[in-house]
Amino acid sequence: MQTRLVEMSGGTPVWTDVADSGGWTVVNLEQIAAWDPDVIVIVHYRGDSSEIAASLVENATWQQLRAVQEGRIYGFPADFYSWDQPDVRWTLGLRWLANTLHPDRMGGFDVVAEMQRFYADLYGLDAATVETTILPALQGSVE
Amino acid sequence: MSTPSSTVAAEARASVSPIGALDQVQALRRQGQRRLWLLAALLIAVTSASLFIGRYPRPYWMSPWVLGEDAMAQQIVWALRMPRVLMAVLLGAALGGAGITLQMIFRNPLVEPGFLGVSQGAAFGAAFSIVFLGSASLYVQGLAMLFAFAGLGLSYFLAQRLRYGGWVLRLVLAGVAVSAIFSAGVGLLKYLADPLTELPEITYWLLGGLWSVTWRDPLLVAPVVLSSLTVLLLMRWRLNLLALNEETSHSLGVRPVFERALMLTAAVAATASVVAIAGIVGWVGLLVPHIVRRLVGANTQLSLPAAMLGGALFVVLCDDLARSMTAGEIPLGILTSLLGAAGFLFVLAGNPIRTRE
């Protein structure tokens, strides 16, 4: 799922030679350094991924990574459920990721407007409901 | 009994005078000591070389020259590899030392350090923490250690309450029962765990690994491990006596109950603390004692330190493979079990032990 998301967003996943069997794989930081990625996206299912990203920016070892030095480490957004999971919110996740990888071509990602449209179209929720119930749960590297 | 060992013993009896036999014993001891030093030198060499083994900047090997110019390489060696290799040394030394101690005390070559409810207790503690308290490493390790000791305590307590058989049998029975209770608990927790987040974490923990080790971990467990191993090292010559039956060892001036309890506690404390960090890493404590007995003889004066060195060597090598063989981490427990079991078969099928002393 994450591999497809990155590919569809116009990125090249670095991990394809590891995760050929599907499922999650543990890699160590050395391997990440050897891959030397342009962008790092943190996914976290039990809390705010952008906090993790922020804590990694503070970490002396992570600071040596090029992506971190260039400030291109992000937390994947989530509301009640992370947007990289196989449920309909992956479309939101895809638009966010594409904009994060290629901000010059995507022309911005207005998260509130996107979410209002998404929840109105798919769940028939009015703007006020989204504002009071869903937006407070929003986490990740979004403005 | 037509094994070659008895033939050798018979030859030795027939061919040498008592003084010659003494010379022979001393020659064997010197040989054992040489091999012990060799093992120590090998461990130091392998440990230092391990700092240059990994995935960065290229798979398998980093030339020392890179270290001078690449800040990332310095960070990796200092902040990732060094604590990890040190942890592997502590882990191996603890498992090897505890393994041989338990095998001697229980007079049973199939005993391993996780026995007596320690491994399963730690597994239960870790799984409990992952499911109910979150996966922060402090909780996981703390609870794993707590339950490892709880497993030991429970086994001890049950063994005292059992009214059946000798103390070896009672402890073994109690250990088996306690392990079964905890492993049932682990099964239940796996069933309850969230398959998306918690279950993979439990599974990885049960397979054992050192990928999350930072400086905090070896420093945290080093006091417990080193003091326990020191107790074992200082008392190692008593182990030979403890391995005799109760009446004999008592008549040789050992206080079996007290010394046994002390050494057991030291061995299990070392095991529990490393298992809490590394997860279940099997076969080290079972295999290594067998191999070092082949190398330096069964006398614990030599074989106990050799088991610690050998265990450390084995785990450092396995962890080198685990972190550098493929781009993804291979769980350490899988490698030690695979290589350990293969090695065990090899040892069993190889030359039979020669009698010494």
Please describe what this structure looks like.
The complex is a heterodimer of chains A (about 140) and B (about 350). Chain A has a single domain (about 1-135), classed as Nitrogenase molybdenum iron protein domain (Rossmann fold, 3-Layer(aba) Sandwich), CATH 3.40.50.1980. Helix content of chain A is about 45%, strand content about 5%. Chain A is built from eight helices and two strands. The longest helix of chain A is centred in the C-terminal third of the chain and has 13 residues, at about 110-125. With about 350 residues, chain B is mostly helical. Chain B has a single domain, classed as Orthogonal Bundle (ABC transporter involved in vitamin B12 uptake, BtuC). The two termini of chain B are about 20 Å apart.
Any key phrases for this structure?
heterodimer; A: 143 residues; mainly alpha; Rossmann fold; two-stranded parallel ribbon; 8 helices; 2 strands; B: 357 residues; ABC transporter involved in vitamin B12 uptake, BtuC; two-stranded antiparallel ribbon; globular; disordered N terminus
**What's the SSE pattern of chain A?**
HHEHHEHHHH
Shape of chain A: globular
User: What's the architecture of chain B, going by CATH?
Assistant: Orthogonal Bundle
Mean pLDDT over the full residue set of chain B? 80
Major beta sheet summary of chain A: 2 strands, parallel
CATH homologous superfamily caption of chain A: Nitrogenase molybdenum iron protein domain
Q: What percent strand of chain B?
A: under 5%
Domain count of chain A: the total is: 1
CA-CA gap between termini of chain B: 19 Å
Q: Sketch the topology of chain B as an H/E string, one letter per element.
A: HHEEHHHHHHHHHHHHH
User: Structural class from helices and strands of chain B?
Assistant: mainly alpha
Instruction: Give the strand line-up of the largest sheet of chain A.
Output: 1-2
Largest interface: A-B, 22 and 26 residues
Tell me the major beta sheet of chain B. 2 strands, antiparallel
